[in-house]
Amino acid sequence: LMSQGKGLEIVLNSHSKRKTSTAVSFHEASRTFGDDALAHQGRAPAKVPMFFHSLLGHNFTEEDIKLGGKWWEKFGLGSKFYSYNLGFQSDRGAPHFVLAEGAEGTSDGEEVLASIFFAAKQMAEASGEGTPLSVRDLVVTMPSDASLRQRQAIVAAGEIAGLRVLTLVNEVSAFAVQRAVDYTPEKGSAELVLFFNL
Fold first, then answer.
1. Which distant-in-sequence residues (6+ apart) come within 8 Å of 88 by Cβ?
2. Mind listing the GO biological process terms from this record (predicted)?
3. pTM (2 decimals)?
């Protein structure tokens, strides 16, 4: 959370943790996020999308999303551990999650990511300590090898969540900027630091 006149602050989630799992559960009538969503993963794995970023901005065909297809190969974890029910939107040329029967029971990767952005927005607004906060803007970090379509998908997810994506920042660059903000060198000294993203 970044607000005017204050330093950068990491918002704690409802479990008082600094990190929140990127999982969304559609198992019950209302969505749950993070660790609460992970609790549903054992009961209804097809309704708890995780690692959904692998759907964003890639070119897959209807054949690719069938078991053993290119999507599962790229996903790397296989259907043995994550039994997603995937469908294909021929008009967009993109796979989506099938969460229930009918057209209303599907969710694109962008919509799932938008749910995560919305949950993060709610956490940030709730952290106001008595002062009502209104979060309107978003900065997203991404790997350096992200394609243009992946970047467009992330911006679309921000718009779906009702947020304006100010910029997309390389993960290593974001880490270096945060280090520069937090670092206070001794007077007259210099430090050389290498940032490497494995």
1. 60, 61, 62, 65, 94, 95, 96
2. endoplasmic reticulum unfolded protein response
3. 0.80
Torsion of CA 89, 82, 159, 117, to 10 degrees: 170
Q: Encode pLDDT of 172-183 as tens digits.
A: 888 888 788 777
Which is it for strands 32-33 and 86-89: parallel, antiparallel or unpaired?
Answer: unpaired
Q: Which residues pair with 164 in a beta bridge?
A: 137
List the chain domain ranges. Answer: 24-182
Closest C-alpha among 108, 8, 64, 177 to residue 193: 177
Quickly name the fold that domain 24-182 has.
Nucleotidyltransferase; domain 5 (3.30.420)
User: pLDDT digits over 138-178, tens only?
Assistant: 999 988 888 899 999 999 999 999 999 999 999 888 888 87
Pairing outcome for strands 24-25 and 32-33? antiparallel
Local structure of residue 154 (DSSP, 8 states): H
Q: Which of 30, 13, 8 is nearest to 22 (CA)?
A: 13
pLDDT in the model for residue 160: 94
Please count the CA atoms within 13 angstroms of the CA of 66 that sit on its side-chain side.
3
The conformation of residue 165, written as its DSSP 8-state character, comes to E
The answer to whether the CB of 52 falls within 8 A of the CB of 86 is no
Q: Residue 145 corresponds to which amino acid?
A: D
Token reading at 187: 């007077």
